[in-house]
Amino acid sequence: MDWSKVNYSSARAALIEVWRGIMKSRSMVAMMVAWPWLLAVTEDAIDQGLVTLPSNGPGLFEAPAAYLRGRWLGPARGWVDPVKEPTGALMRIESGLSNWEDESAEQGIDFDLNLAALKSQKKQWTDAGLTPPALAAMLAQSGTSDGEKPVA
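RE: above sequence
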């Protein structure tokens, strides 16, 4: 466990290889365990009248993918460098190679729940008469050790 001779690139490359294996295992668990379990629970809920299918729609077993669509979130992938990697995520989103939901899922975060929490927290800041901190504002106000502002 001596990491003193590891640089960012080699650590990141190793993490990517390990993560590929984890993702393969995660998809196997979802396919072999989680989806059948969800199908059984959904069927039971329909049988008990807790869930009603659309009257003009297909049955559960005629179109299971339509009713069971979802994403299984696992543990966060984690970051080797918590500055570079979120920056890369933002670049992927901005370039259209990814989206907020996928990037959140990579970190084990449910995007919809997170967005609702952020909205609520922003309202709490506003209700308290405060402005929530923003990364751009923090970076603009951070200076060098001699007090100079960074060049934009």
